[in-house]
Amino acid sequence: MSDRHLVTTKSNNFDLIRLAAALQVAVVHLLHHQGLDSDHNILTVLARYFPGVPIFFFVSGFLISQSFDRNPSLADFTLNRCLRIYPALIVCFLVSILSVYAAGYFRIQSPGLISFASWAAAQLSFLQFYNPDFMRHYGTGVLNGSVWTIGVELQFYALIPLIYWLMHSRRWGRMSANNLCLTLILVFIVANRIYSMQIPTLSASIFFKLAGVTFIPWVYMFLTGVFVQHNFSWFHSRLSGKFLIVLAVYGAIAVLTERWLGWGFGNSINPILFFALVAAGFTAAFSNPTLSDLVLRRNDISYGVYVYHMPVINFFLAIGWGASIEAFWGAMLATLGLALMSWLIIEKPALTLKKHPLYRHVTENRDKIVR
């Protein structure tokens, strides 16, 4: 293994960054759906400047491309990705259905067998954005609206072999892998800007909604991770160890561009702000790079926080518990508890089945590793 891969796999804070990103998404949704978000709420203000989904897409591009670099076997790649996504997703869906039943919703809204089976098939495949009519009166109207990004992630995974083939194909002549990757990033930035500018006028269109759950508006974020990973040494030599400086620069850019230019954040973050956020995220990953292991002990509950927080929010709303600080912290603690159980009981054991993993998680025996 090269020095580049040794550094990125063994000494980084990506688990901590992903957890922060998942918590950002959970906090934003909790505040919004419980009616607690306000420009006077410090959590609302801070969360706005650090959108979690773009961070996830960048980190995914970085780590998934690194994994494919290390082991380009399509069989191993597919198995590893399925083991990371589906065991926890399947259990989360089952737990979510139980929560709907416990809230009493199915006593007043009974789904037909075909409708329920179609919904389950969509949720457990790659069509997580699908929401049936019989769920539209439960909680927010969508049981787990956050998981639309899983379908997008799966599309990213499917694109990785093609991206690598394009980057290393001789058909491009003198165009280097870097130049091709940058060209693709620019092309899809244009697609992202076109999509974002149409949100106010076309958001109700079914075709526009379907476009939003394809890779097209978001893949430039993933490709940015691929590009940074492909040029890791260059970025590492310039950004590692400078977290506070880069964070201050990002904060200044974010505040000034929002105030003077009206640039937005969220999933449709302005690309310039996104690149500044990427710089902050990368330097966070490689400044004091043992912090994540020290804090989390290689326990990664970020996926659990991401997939469980909306079912928890919807359950609380369905039983009439919302719009209070107590409900906020109750939902957050419930989410963290479910995420921890998901990691210990489902995700961590599933990862032992991965082939040639990029990252390893320590078990109770320091000398024993779980792949």
What is the total tally of β strands? Answer: 2
Strand/helix succession:
HHHHHHHHHHHHHHHHHEE
Number of domains: 1
Distance between the termini: 17 Å
Q: What's the helical proportion of residues?
A: 55-70%
Task: List the strand order in the largest sheet.
Answer: 1-2
Ranges with pLDDT <50 over ≥5 residues?
1-9, 362-371
Form type: globular
What is the average per-residue confidence, as pLDDT, rounded to a whole number?
91
Strand count, sense and barrel status of the largest sheet are: 2 strands, antiparallel
In short:
Helix content is 69%, strand content 1%. It has 371 residues and is mainly α.
Please give a handful of descriptors for the protein shown.
mainly alpha, globular, disordered C terminus
